[in-house]
Amino acid sequence: MNMRLNHQPFMAIKNGTKKIEVRLNDEKRARLEVGDTIQFTDLKTGATLATRVLELEKFPTFQALFEKYSGEIIGSPENESVAALDKENLTIYSRERESLYGALAIRIEMI
Questions:
Q1: Alpha helices per DSSP H over the chain
Q2: Whole-model pTM?
Q3: Which CA distances in Å does 76 have to 27, 30, 36, 83, 111?
Q4: 19 — phi, psi (to 5°)?
């Protein structure tokens, strides 16, 4: 599966600090299985990197996901609050889509 990422989260995966990718659990992500390969493309540079899915964890909301996972493991600052993470995420996914699909934490490793 191919996914695009902004430069900062792409580099965090490449550097080994970001181990969980946070996505809407839409039709595309719902097809993911443990062991699948995800190729990420850096939107700034066009560079790519390959990862393997180690675990998939579904949440009813992004807030619930951020209550469990925050900080470096998801590619955000350690001191960023759940409310700030949730607000930032609203610039990507609407509440309507979140309500329809839920959130997905994708634990990955570089391959």
A1: 7-14, 27-30, 62-68, 82-89, 95-101
A2: 0.95
A3: 25, 24, 24, 13, 22
A4: -115, -10
* Rounded Cα–Cα distance for residues 51 and 40 (Å): 8
CA dihedral sign of residues 12, 85, 46, 106 = positive
Task: Profile the chain (111 residues) by mean pLDDT over runs of 10 residues.
Answer: 96 96 97 98 98 98 96 93 94 96 98 95
Q: Are strands 37-42 and 2-5 parallel, antiparallel or unpaired?
A: parallel
Torsion 47-53-54-56 (CA) sign: positive
- State the number of CA atoms in the 13 A half-sphere of 54 facing the CB: 10
Phi, psi (deg, nearest 5) at residue 38 = -115, 125
